[in-house]
Design brief:
With 409 residues, this protein is of the alpha+beta class. It has helices spanning 15-25, 38-42, 55-63, 67-70, 114-127, 173-177, 235-242, 246-257, 305-325, 333-361, 366-381, 383-393; strands at 7-10, 30-34, 50-54, 75-77, 79-86, 90-99, 109-113, 131-135, 139-144, 149-153, 158-161, 163-166, 182-198, 205-211, 214-220, 226-234, 264-266, 271-280, 284-285, 288-290, 296-297. The strands form four sheets. Strands 5, 6, 13, 14, 15, 16, 17, 18 and 21 form a nine-stranded mixed sheet that branches. It has a six-stranded mixed sheet with strand order 8-2-1-12-20-19. Strands 3-7-4 form a three-stranded antiparallel sheet. Strand 9 (139-144) and strand 10 (149-153) form a beta hairpin. It is globular and about 65 Å long. The protein starts with 6 loop residues before the first strand and ends in a 16-residue tail after the last helix. 47% of the residues are buried. The model has no long low-confidence stretch (mean pLDDT 88).
Length: 409
């Protein structure tokens, strides 16, 4: 039966376009179904939403042709500082400090605003002959048979392909319709997200301040005087803070933020989202694979959500392109099992690791606090151990797919 594409990707956020571009480079025809209108996303103004991209993720973006158009808008993360404490009381004497000078590869990562990253993806997709973008459309049904998958869109249009990939987030309709269940739990925390303008230059340093109610991440944006914040609070406290006017919001933020960057002011839209851990029991089903948040939703404590998704992208692209070049069925269980073996253990381990860190630090137990502070002091005092942590944060450890090593497939 004639196919409309080799692969249909449900979800056009960031992982979907990245996968489409990688697959198209390998000679596969891809359709991306994106619920949101592309022009509105690409032309959005500054709102403070940004992503921390590890070195390995930057390499992937370079290979698939996105980084050249966005690299000049990215802020290198030259240092990362992590400390423990209480709002208004300052940090504990023991802390962690990571410096990119300790590794040969350069900055540990880059901060890049959502509006720039998506615009880069959109331009690259429009220029890629093997990619078709359907904006303002959603997948509402899917049927699997021996030859492929038939996907029905909200408009009534039906598309056929060898494989369907769900890049449609934690509430993935693709996974739900395939009968893939999820495991996880709610943290009882909500993330408050916005951007601030500060008097002093951030110097390319990212800060993570752990407090009993949840961590506050201060992430440097380009230009030196803007930072994105991801501020985790208990659900009730976050709801009350979000309901305040801007002056009240700043009054609540200042004692947590401190004065190390001078005077601060709100500079972006204020967002909130609930925090939870959500892991799909399987990353695959017949003629179907899950990528990114559709497979694993993690705590933002280390800013690894998008990086984890791009690891999925790199692994799945390598598996599928390899099968395609060997003349094999790209939707076969053999190819999909290879992807699951490569990614599920790593993703689950990282998700549970971030869960453990959040539980360790998001409490006021004096014994645990003493232990974690001493632990940070020990790591900070041992260059070899500190270097291992830096390389892990940069995405340089483990069995890396070719794209994450900066190599075409």
């Amino acid at each position: 039966m004639e196919m409309d594409a080799d692969i249909i990707i449900a979800g056009g956020g960031l992982n979907g376009p990245a996968l489409a571009l990688a697959l198209a480079q390998g000679g596969l025809r891809v359709v991306v179904v994106d619920a949101r209108p592309a022009p509105a996303r690409a032309e959005a103004g500054f709102d403070g939403r940004a992503y921390a991209l590890a070195i390995a993720s930057k390499r992937l973006l370079q290979v698939i042709g996105v980084w050249p158009s966005v690299g000049d808008k990215a802020q290198p993360m030259l240092k990362i500082k992590a400390s423990d404490g209480h709002a208004g009381q300052g940090a504990a004497p023991f802390f962690l400090s990571f410096d990119s000078a300790e590794i040969e590869e350069g900055p540990m990562g880059f901060m890049l605003e959502d509006r720039f990253l998506y615009a880069g993806f959109l331009a690259a997709m429009q220029a890629a002959p093997g990619v078709t973008l359907l904006s303002g459309e959603t997948v509402v049904a899917q049927e699997i048979d021996a030859q492929g998958v038939a996907v029905t869109l909200a408009s009534g249009r039906v598309l056929r392909a060898r494989l369907l990939v769900g890049c449609d987030g934690r509430g993935s309709g693709v996974a739900l319709r395939a009968g893939i269940r999820r495991q996880g739990w709610d943290y009882g925390q909500t993330a408050l997200v916005t951007a601030i303008h500060h008097e002093k230059d951030h110097g390319g340093t990212a800060h993570q301040f752990f407090m009993p109610s949840g961590p506050l991440a201060i992430l440097p944006l380009s230009g030196g005087h803007h930072s994105s914040i991801v501020w985790s609070e208990t659900e009730g406290a976050a709801e009350a803070i979000q309901a305040l006017d801007d002056a009240g919001y700043l009054a609540a933020l200042r004692p947590r933020f401190g004065d190390f960057l001078g005077e601060i002011a709100l500079a972006g839209t204020r967002f909130t989202y609930p925090l939870s851990l959500s892991l799909a029991e399987r990353f695959i089903a017949p003629r179907l694979a899950l990528v990114g948040d559709a497979a694993h939703g993690v705590h933002p404590i280390a800013g690894q959500g998008l990086n984890l998704g791009l690891r999925d992208v790199a692994a799945l692209a390598e598996v599928l392109i390899g099968a395609h070049r060997r003349g094999e069925d790209i939707g076969s269980s053999v190819a999909l099992e290879e992807y699951q073996r490569w990614r599920r253990f790593d993703a689950t381990t990282l998700a549970l690791g971030m869960d453990g860190v959040n539980r360790l630090f998001s409490n006021n137990n004096p014994i645990l606090r003493m232990g974690r502070d001493l632990g940070m002091g020990v790591v900070n005092a041992l260059p070899g151990l500190r270097r291992r942590f830096i390389r892990q944060a940069a995405g340089l450890n483990g069995d890396l797919p070719r794209l994450l090593a900066g190599k075409p497939i």
